[in-house]
What we know:
Number of helices: 11
Number of domains: 2
CATH architecture of the largest domain: Roll
Shape: rod-shaped
Low-confidence stretches: none
Helix content: 40-55%
Strand content: 5-15%
Mean pLDDT: 89
Number of strands: 8
CATH topology of the largest domain: Endonuclease I-creI
Distance between the termini: 71 Å
CATH class of the largest domain: Alpha Beta
Amino acid sequence: MSFSFRVKEELSRxxxxxxxxxxxxxxxxxxxxxRVQISANERYRIxxxxxxxxxxxxxxxxxxxxxxxxxxxxxxxxxxxxKTLTYTVAVQNHEDSMKVLKAAKILQxxxxxxxxxxxxxxxxxxxxxxxxxxIRGAFxxxxxxxxxxxxxxxxxxxxxxEKAAQIQTVIATFGxxxxxxxxxxxxxxxxxxxxxxVDLLNVMEAPVSLMELENIRILREMRGQVNRQxxxxxxxxxKTVSAAVRQIEDxxxxxxxxxxxxxxxxxxxxxxxxxxxxxxxxxxxxxxxxTPVGKSGVNHRLRKLSAIAGELREKDAGCETGGSLFQGx
Length: 329
C-alpha cells in the first residue's frame, strides 16, 4: 500500500461537520472527476468516475450527509488494464442533481454548466475552512504524494491552466508556494518542499499521515547529517594522510640524497619524528618535540623540509640553485 493511498484512505474518512465545508469538498470532487449529463428533454444527471475506492466512498458519504439523496454505485473492470477497477457514483434523479449543482455553484443562473475559478468571486471558497475542504477534495480526486522515503513530491493534476491557477491560489492562502508545470495535455500543481507538504497535510486534516511523514523527514535529516559529518571527517582524514605521505616522501628524499644530519637541528628533529610517527597529527608532532611547539610551528618546519626536497630534486635534474634553504630551524 503506497503512502499516497494511505493518505487518501485517511482523508476519505475525514468529513467536516459544517455543511458549507462539505459542499466545498464535493464541489472539488465534481470539478475534477465529475460529469454532468443533460438529456434531450433537459433532465440533468451527475456521474462521478474514479479508480480510487476512497474517492467513491467519500463522494457517496458527502452526497448522503449533505443532501440526503440516494446514489447508484457501479464498479467496472478496465477493459485494457484488467487489474484496474473504475467506480461510478451517479445521481440519477433530476431534482437531486439540480440541488447538488446549484449548491456547488456549478450550474450558473443562465442554466449553463461552469465554474467560477476566481477565488474572490467564488462563494464557496470565502471561508478558510471551506478552502481546506476544497483542497482535500481536489487531492482525493486528482492528487498524489510520492513515497517520502525516496523523495518529496505532492501534486494535483488539473485539466486546464485556469483550474491549475485556481488550485495554486487556494494553496497560497495558507502560506505555501505551489508551482505549475505542463505534463502532456494536463497542468500539474506541485510542491517539492518536505516542510510545505507537511503543512499541506495539516491543512487537509490528515494528522496520521502528517506524523508518518514527519517521522520519515526526521530520520532522513539525521541520516543526512551523519553522512555529511562522515564525509567531512573522511575528507579531513584523506587530506591529513595525503599531506603526511608527501612529507614522508620529501624527508625520505632528503635522507637518501644528502642525509638528515645535514639539516639544521630543528628540521632534523621534526624530520626524524615524522618518519617515526607517520600517522601523527601536527599537534601530536609538536607536543612530542623536546621543546614543544604549536601546529603552526610544526607546519612551518615541514614546509621548509618540502622546499629543501624540491631544491634537491631541481639539482638532480641539472638546475643550478643556491643552498640557502638548508639554513634556519
